[in-house]
Amino acid sequence: MKIADIRANAYSMPFVSPAYPKGPYRFVNREFFIITYRTDPDLLRAVVPEPLTVKDPLVSFEFIRMPDSSGFGDYTESGQVISVIDQDGKPASYTHMMYLDDHAPIAGGRELWGFPKKLAKPQLSVASDTLLGTLDYGPVRVATGTMGFKYVPLDIAAEERKIAQTPCYLLKIIPHVDGTARICELVRYFSHSVKMHGAWTGPARLELFHHALAPIADLPVLEVVSAKHLVCDLTLELGEVAFDYLKI
User: Fold this and answer.
1) Catalytic residue (one of 22, 117, 150, 195)
2) What is the count of structural domains for the chain?
3) Is there a domain that residue 83 lies in?
4) What does the pLDDT look like over 97-126, one tens digit per residue?
5) 117 given a catalytic annotation
6) 213-233 pLDDT, tens per residue?
7) What whole-number distance in Å separates Cα of residue 50 and Cα of residue 45?
């Protein structure tokens, strides 16, 4: 195998059979169950990386079903997204932790964007009149979310704009062969070509349980602020480096 061939064709591992294909990455009928809650502001500031800042101590716990994802297949994801202000003074989101059940999007999410993904078992389903989200880490339940199913419609156009216009941030870390950080960057990305099929809200509750390797309960639920159930199509853009921690 020639050096030129490696340079021309390398984008993921293993070289001869990459864990995921090249993008774009289009998601069809992507289903979100998002519960936004208020937490301890000091605990929140301790996990949000500068130059991002915290104004309101709000965390969104998300359960996401992705039945039709280009290159990634059919999978479910769950995790915590923090409301922040970015270095441009704009409202934004910072993804704190994510858990999912499919290797391809774990590998692609970590390598390309820097999504903080770990293997677990999230589920999103409808149980009679209740939208139900659960997250298990191994055999242990670490999160349960419930909402009344399609209680109140939301403004579809407004929800579509929120997804398309909100900058999203990730802390991407790739180690060197000696274990030190070779890449340590704040990555910004957007979603585009968003098509909202439905949006609803309703009464909701969220329970988080302590686990040593899935420490989502370290940001405790003090008050549930809102909840929504969204179904949409979108394309996940590749990111851009917003801040390089190794070039300070």
Assistant:
1) 117
2) 1
3) yes
4) 999 999 999 999 999 999 999 999 999 999
5) yes
6) 999 999 999 999 999 999 999
7) 9
